[in-house]
Amino acid sequence: MRLVLLALSLFIAGCASSPPLAPEADAPWPPERLDSELQSAVEKLARGFRGRVGVYVRHLPSGRSAALRADSLFPTASMIKVPILVATMEAIHRGDLAWDEPLVFRDSLRYDDHGLIGLLRDSARIELHVAVEAMLSASDNNASLWLQSLSGGGARINEILAARGYTGTRMNSGTDGRRADWERYGWGQTTPREMSHLVREIVDRDVDIVSPQADERMHRALTRTFWDGEALSAIPPGVQVASKQGAVSASRSEVLYVHAPSGPYVFTVITDAQEDQSWGADNEGFVLLRELSALFWRTFEPESRWRSASDGTFELEQVE
């Protein structure tokens, strides 16, 4: 039955000029419905922010949702590494790459000397999965650009996104015809709603973005991030979360799929044109990420014995 439904969805997508997002059609969750109280709380937290804010959040079992500029374009920063991951796994699925394929690093591949891959010497050998882990866990830009090239480049990544029905999420860097988009949005662009849907496609088991095995591998990889000081800090450490973070001077962003006790919820928060371009924990964008994440946890898990610390750091403590 699952194969029949998947085949039917692919047939429809191939016939339609503007196919709907696959997660909206295929995910097993009820339709989303506006939670007016949550919507007001989101708007209150975003009010007065010195920059643009985009938010999309949805509690999947109930459909409760809120949105703020959810269909507007924003920079992805390092969240573009989610589409790179999908394209890499598709290349593995096609047989063009292998998870344990040996790679040889060259100095010409070095983008900067940050992260794990940037520290490699010329002619160093690693396996492909090491580059994937570095791209996601450490958000290593050297690994990401390497995998972008290995998976077929920006044009191929955008073809995959378009075939899945994504109209706003695109790779800009290193992609012909997208210089104007690169000048405006940087490495990549997306909308809060589309980035949330993309992670849902990876995590939800009723629709495969690549294959059941590839999706499971991507899901596991997305749960192992080093960057847990913002939105993740407002969620108990025992709760599994698939996530990706992004940050450049004028934009801070995160996408999270939270396997909460009462059922999963997904959200994306992106800022743009921030006046505060500092890099401390008190940056306005980082603070907003923590506040919105804490709001969503309290809203969807009201009976939880976990609460954010009273000092505003969002380090969690257990309430007796």
TrEMBL record:
<dbReference type="InterPro" id="IPR045155">
    <property type="entry name" value="Beta-lactam_cat"/>
</dbReference>
<dbReference type="InterPro" id="IPR012338">
    <property type="entry name" value="Beta-lactam/transpept-like"/>
</dbReference>
<dbReference type="Pfam" id="PF13354">
    <property type="entry name" value="Beta-lactamase2"/>
</dbReference>
<dbReference type="GO" id="GO:0008800">
    <property type="term" value="F:beta-lactamase activity"/>
</dbReference>
<protein>
    <recommendedName>
        <fullName>beta-lactamase</fullName>
        <ecNumber>3.5.2.6</ecNumber>
    </recommendedName>
</protein>
<feature type="domain" description="Beta-lactamase class A catalytic">
    <location>
        <begin position="54"/>
        <end position="271"/>
    </location>
</feature>
<comment type="similarity">
    <text>Belongs to the class-A beta-lactamase family.</text>
</comment>
<dbReference type="GO" id="GO:0030655">
    <property type="term" value="P:beta-lactam antibiotic catabolic process"/>
</dbReference>
<dbReference type="GO" id="GO:0046677">
    <property type="term" value="P:response to antibiotic"/>
</dbReference>
<keyword id="KW-0732">Signal</keyword>
<feature type="signal peptide">
    <location>
        <begin position="1"/>
        <end position="22"/>
    </location>
</feature>
<dbReference type="InterPro" id="IPR000871">
    <property type="entry name" value="Beta-lactam_class-A"/>
</dbReference>
